[in-house]
Every structure is written in structure tokens, then in C-alpha cells.
Specification:
disordered N terminus, alpha/beta, single chain, 268 residues, seven-stranded mixed beta sheet, Rossmann fold
Length: 268
């Protein structure tokens, strides 16, 4: 028993050491974020014809969760696109995403919302979360394996080092949480494990807000990480991201297959 315990302690120490070696994005990448999203919004409107060829949805409910310090207004382009492709798209209607201050310490407000949408539709629902919204989506999905069909995260730092981002100070002031607290590190350590339902983590190594290593997790037969060309803010306005999200959501229930690169995204 002592040998098992010591081995587990050594692995935990190694995992923590690896997490602490992750660094925030460079200041240059952070500064470029606002410029990059402008190009992505323009590209989105120029790509309407290409996006019209993405798979049609089967009408199931898709709940879209906004990023930190944003509300449903930030995801309106993504939600409009998904509704156009045939999904019953829902905003979360919880206001600004200030983590536990908004969703409850255990994410109970999102959990209750998922249960309500599941009960009303009679079908498992999919979750698409941008940035912190994806972190919350994954945590809620672990609680509701029978109610969540699939989870797609967009530049969501759900694992690694919770201090490795460009908005730590703002996050701590608005959320009331300490990024380097034991609770935060425990939360991020638990986030690495694959979910019990299909999940896709979309990320970019040149992310200017979150360390990209925090946005990818362990993989298995129903879990994948997909790298794209996008800024952090542009994840909710990037035509390549939209195309991949449509491809993922169109996977048949019970027949999910990993993403096959069709240009612009690479599964790793």
C-alpha cells in the first residue's frame, strides 16, 4: 500500500511540476488579439458560401456558453450560424460570465439549465463553450453524463496552470477567486481527464489570452484536441472554427468519429 501511495504522490508532484512550467502568452500575442479578430470577422462574412456547405444539424439543442467577462452578446455570430445550420440553439441567459459568481460554486445554475433543456427536448443536448464557458461546460457535463451528448470547447483553459493567462488580475478582481489557490489547482488538475461523452477541444498555439497547453487535455476514443488558425477572441467569429464546430455537432449520436482534417484544422 505504501509503494502505491508513494507512486501516486510522485506522479501528482510530476503533474504539478509540469503544470507550473506552463507560461502565459507573450505580451505581443496579447496586444495582437484585437487586431486579429478584425480580420477574422471580415473573413467570416466573406466565407458565407463555404459555410453553407457545412453539414446540416438534426435539430437537437445546443447550449452556447460565453467566455470570461462576456455575455451572450459575444456569441451571437456563432449562435446565429448554428441556428442557420439547423440546431435548436440556446443562449445561457445568465448574464456576464464571472465564473462561480455567475454559475454558483458547483456550477449549479448551468447544471439546472442543462437538466431543464434536456427534459423539455427529450434528447441529450450539446454544449459549446468559449474560453471560461468551456471550462464550465466540461465541469457540468461530468455531472450529467446522460443529459449531455457532446462538448466542444473553444480556447478553453480547463487544465494545466490556472495562473498561465493574460487576464489573471482581472479574473481575480471580477470573480473573487484566486488563480493560484489550492482549489483552483485542484480544479485544473481534474480537468485534464477525458469526459464520459465525446468532446473536442479547439485551440491555437498562438493564443494571446490563455496558454495553449491549458486548452488541451488527455485523449481517448471519444476525446480529441484540434488546432486551428485563430486568435482567442476570434474563436467566436472564425470561419474555420465555425466549420469544425458544425462538423463536430453533426456527428450522429452514438456514432461519433474523430475529426478528419479537411483543411484549416488538425486533430492531435
Amino acid at each position: 500500500m505504501d509503494q502505491v501511495s508513494n507512486g501516486g504522490d510522485r506522479q501528482a508532484d510530476a503533474d504539478e511540476g509540469a503544470a507550473r512550467s506552463i507560461r502565459p502568452p507573450s505580451k505581443m500575442l496579447t496586444v495582437l488579439e484585437t487586431m486579429r479578430i478584425g480580420f477574422e470577422v471580415n473573413a467570416l462574412f466573406l466565407s458565407a458560401g463555404l459555410l453553407a456547405t457545412t453539414p446540416r444539424g438534426d435539430g437537437h439543442v445546443v447550449l452556447v456558453l460565453p467566455g470570461f467577462a462576456t455575455d451572450d452578446g459575444a456569441t451571437i455570430l456563432l449562435r446565429t450560424f448554428l441556428a442557420w445550420r439547423g440546431y435548436d440553439v440556446r443562449a445561457w441567459d445568465l448574464g456576464y460570465n464571472l465564473d462561480h459568481r455567475t454559475v454558483g460554486f458547483g456550477g449549479e445554475r448551468v447544471i439546472d439549465l442543462i437538466r431543464t433543456l434536456r427534459a423539455k427536448s427529450g434528447r441529450a443536448i450539446s454544449l459549446v463553450g468559449w474560453s471560461l464557458g468551456g471550462v464550465i461546460a466540461r465541469e457540468a457535463a461530468r455531472h450529467l453524463p446522460d443529459d449531455v451528448r457532446q462538448v466542444v470547447t473553444l480556447a478553453s483553459p480547463f487544465t494545466g496552470d490556472p495562473t498561465a493567462n493574460a487576464v489573471r488580475g482581472l479574473y481575480e478582481r471580477l470573480s473573487g477567486n484566486r488563480a493560484d489557490s489550492p482549489a483552483a489547482r485542484k480544479r485544473f488538475a481534474a480537468g485534464h481527464a477525458p469526459l464520459p461523452m465525446p468532446s473536442s477541444a479547439i485551440f491555437r498555439k498562438s493564443d494571446g489570452i490563455a496558454a495553449w497547453q491549458n486548452c488541451v487535455g488527455g485523449t481517448d476514443a471519444i476525446t480529441e484536441n484540434i488546432q486551428v488558425h485563430s486568435s482567442h477572441f476570434g474563436m467566436v467569429a472564425n470561419p474555420t472554427v465555425f466549420r469544425i464546430v458544425a462538423d463536430r455537432l453533426a456527428q450522429p449520436e452514438g456514432g461519433w468519429m474523430p475529426y478528419a482534417d479537411k483543411g484549416g484544422g488538425a486533430s492531435i
